[in-house]
Specification:
about 140 residues, alpha+beta, 7-stranded mixed β-sheet, elongated
């Protein structure tokens, strides 16, 4: 009889460990939002540092982090877009625009560049750059 009770307790223990492991894995995902926010926040400042990352936050891969002179650190993900504003373009004089925004790679950004950033919450814990524009000096 003791052997049967021991086997029963071992089975209950294994089931309990499996349930706890499942809840540990699933509950944080249920509590976090994996849908990017529709709202965006605006930041303006100079780039202090650009750091290559190899991490992930709530399943979103972080490629780089950019720190601004106001100590704000914002993540670069696959959804991030980079632009520079230029006055050097050959446009038809009949066009009414005065500046052109050209898409660039992150490798073209430099420290001390003046930037405007639109960022959004990618998920519960990650603020990602959605749109970064290097502005004219």
């Amino acid at each position: 009889m003791n052997r049967k009770k021991l086997i029963l307790w071992v089975i209950i223990g294994i089931i309990l460990i499996a349930v706890i492991g499942y809840l540990y894995k699933v509950v944080p995902n249920l509590l976090s939002s994996n849908t990017p926010s529709a709202e965006q926040q605006f930041y303006k400042g100079k780039i202090v540092s650009i750091n290559k990352e190899n991490s992930s936050i709530d399943g979103e891969k972080v490629l780089y982090s950019i720190q601004l002179d106001n100590d704000q650190i914002i993540a670069v993900t696959k959804n991030s877009h980079f632009f520079k504003i230029t006055n050097n373009f050959n446009a038809d004089p009949s066009l009414k625009f005065t500046q052109l925004r050209e898409e660039i790679n992150i490798s073209e950004l430099k420290k001390a560049s003046e930037v405007e950033i639109w960022a959004r919450q990618a998920n519960t814990h990650l603020l990602e750059i959605y749109d970064l524009t290097e502005v004219l000096d």
